[in-house]
């Protein structure tokens, strides 16, 4: 499983404050902790910390780059913010994200093509987030075809079936599992699939349990990557155990210890 850290996000009060005050050490400490926990990439999301999203994104990239070469996942809906982040990165970044809206694909796909970056694509279009798996798969197919025309092979696309909070959309997780199963059949090589796991448990009481159970299910139908907090011990234990059960890593009685080493 490709782990993307969710923690460098202006949604968190401490991060919001660090961005506003340009407290580099605070951001760098989170980055290093998340990598130690098992993150291979770091999602960078400035949130609402400042009106200057471009300046904040560049600052985040530069701050994190001082302490690690890990892949940076540039997370913003605005193309200008992603573009500025991409320039600050140079290489080794993921674009997070485009939608299937024509206006977005027209901007984000050429950036991915030019820079060679992998790109996350949300299965939503001008009509918003679809309510059915079928519609999401249809949008995914459109993304893959449009990307191929720009020279981006399906294995460079991380489709995101869009995770909604369980307390307002309880019918959605099952539809996401159906979507993941089906989009894997769309192309050869297949597209990859990523989810923002914590969206599921936003505003709920049993965050770790909800996240862990759903992660295991999503891995079972072919999830490739996940945005989460690797410092959540239960969640990571379930993730590592699921890798064992799917025969992705070799079993030993000390498999948890071995993975962490
Ligand atoms: N897909 C893609 N990118 C994404 C998401 C996605 N990026 C952002 C987000 N979703 C993933 N990151 C988070 C980070 C934190 C939380 C949820 C998703 C979160 N925070 C807690 C809450 O709201 O309850 C705590 C916040 C706080 O402490 O203030 O849940 O889906 N491609």
What would you note in describing this structure?
It is a single chain. The protein is an alpha/beta fold and 261 residues long. 47% of the residues lie in helices and 14% in strands. It is built from ten helices and eight strands. It has helices at 13-20, 24-37, 53-65, 79-89, 102-115, 133-149, 172-183, 207-220, 233-245, 255-260; strands spanning 2-5, 41-44, 71-75, 93-98, 118-122, 157-160, 192-196, 225-228. An eight-stranded parallel beta barrel has the order 1-2-3-4-5-6-7-8, surrounded by five helices. Helix 3 (53-65) packs parallel to helix 4 and helix 6 (133-149) runs parallel beside helix 7 (172-183). The longest helix is centred in the middle third of the chain and has 17 residues, at 133-149. The radius of gyration is 18 Å and the shape is globular. The mean pLDDT is 97. Residues 6, 9, 11-13, 43, 45, 75, 96-97, 120, 160, 163, 196, 198-199, 202-203, 227 line the site of (6S)-5,6,7,8-tetrahydrofolate.
In short:
This protein is of the alpha/beta class and 261 residues long.
Topology, element by element:
Blueprint: E1 2-5, H1 13-20, H2 24-37, E2 41-44, H3 53-65, E3 71-75, H4 79-89, E4 93-98, H5 102-115, E5 118-122, H6 133-149, E6 157-160, H7 172-183, E7 192-196, H8 207-220, E8 225-228, H9 233-245, H10 255-260
Parallel strand pairs: 1-2, 1-8, 2-3, 3-4, 4-5, 5-6, 6-7, 7-8
Helix pairs in contact: 3-4, 6-7, 8-9
This protein binds (6S)-5,6,7,8-tetrahydrofolate.
(6S)-5,6,7,8-tetrahydrofolate (THG) is lined by residues 6, 9, 11-13, 43, 45, 75, 96-97, 120, 160, 163, 196, 198-199, 202-203, 227.
């Amino acid at each position: 499983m490709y782990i993307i850290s969710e923690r460098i996000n202006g949604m968190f009060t401490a991060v919001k404050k660090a961005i506003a005050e340009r407290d580099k050490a605070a951001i760098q400490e989170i980055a290093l902790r998340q990598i130690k926990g098992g993150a291979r990439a770091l999602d960078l999301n400035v949130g609402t910390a400042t009106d200057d999203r471009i300046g904040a994104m560049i600052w985040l990239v530069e701050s994190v780059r001082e302490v690690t070469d890990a892949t940076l996942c540039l997370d913003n809906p605005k193309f200008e913010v992603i573009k500025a982040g991409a320039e600050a990165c140079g290489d080794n970044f993921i674009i997070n994200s485009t939608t299937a809206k024509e206006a977005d694909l027209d901007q984000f796909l050429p950036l991915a093509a030019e820079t060679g970056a992998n790109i996350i694509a949300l299965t939503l279009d001008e009509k918003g987030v679809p309510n059915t798996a079928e519609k999401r798969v249809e949008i995914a197919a459109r993304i893959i075809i449009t990307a191929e025309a720009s020279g981006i092979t399906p294995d460079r696309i991380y489709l995101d079936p869009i995770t909604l909070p369980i307390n307002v959309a309880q019918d959605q997780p099952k539809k996401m599992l159906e979507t993941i199963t089906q989009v894997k059949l769309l192309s050869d090589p297949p597209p990859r699939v990523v989810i923002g796991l914590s969206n599921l448990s936003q505003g709920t009481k049993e965050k770790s349990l909800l996240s862990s159970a759903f992660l295991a299910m999503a891995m079972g139908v072919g999830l490739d990557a996940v945005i989460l907090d690797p410092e959540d011990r239960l969640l990571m234990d379930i993730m590592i155990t699921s890798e064992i059960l799917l025969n992705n890593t070799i079993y030993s009685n000390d498999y948890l210890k071995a993975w962490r080493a």
